Sequence to fold (261 residues):
Amino acid sequence: MRTWAIGDIQGCFTVFQSLLTKIDFKAGRDQLWLAGDVINRGPESLEMLRWVVRHQADVRMVLGNHELHVLAQARGFDKVKRRDTFQPILVAPDRDALLSWLQRRPLLVRRGEMTMVHAGLAPSWSVDLAAQLAAEIEATLRGPGADALLSRLRGDVPTWTPSLRGIERQVAAVAVLTRMRTCAADGAVTDYVGPPESCPSGQQPWHAWTRRPGTVIFGHWAAYGYHVRPGHVSLDSGAVWGRQLTAWCLEDGTTAQVPGV
Ligand SMILES: [Mn+2]
Fold:
């Protein structure tokens, strides 16, 4: 039995299938940890999402910004963007089942020393606090407050501080967990998408601010790419941008890669 963490698949279902072949993935024996953004931008979002739902017993998956975008867009809260390719999900006969399954996914997965989120943790957060905030957001997404949260994920987002209350606390935490790449010391999430070495003055990669015990596995940052470092494993190796799709084994650190689209 092996557990493989895989970064942003972004609807590259065929590429994903070739990676499964390469790691000799066997349903019922092995487990997958998917770091979010399994859909959108690539060509086969519907096929990808259906596969994950069908194999949910073998998969632990966190929500990425693209999953939250499709959930918001399905309710008319987000506009369709030029590069969005998830429309086949929205017109599929099994749309409601797929979207309601997606809406019940976690924002953080943890096993022993390993923690997976889509984007990152704020400088001031412990892993315990991140898990607590993720649980609060997950409860909202499963309850009557879901629409209020999903409609509030765009536009100005407050910087997370412990004094935030109610929906603003969750809006701030969602931005950290699903959109952060670099930040200033106060943890303000920015829109910077470039590589770490040219990040704006006063900012650093989120993981450079704080050394925590254990390992945080994340995706979301294609310009950083695949890196295994003390304290973190970065898995978005740009499959949808013609680079690689990467799997990293939690038990022994084995890596497998296949070319992207
Ligand atoms: Mn992302």
Remarks:
- The two ends are 29 Å apart (CA to CA).
- The mean pLDDT is 97.
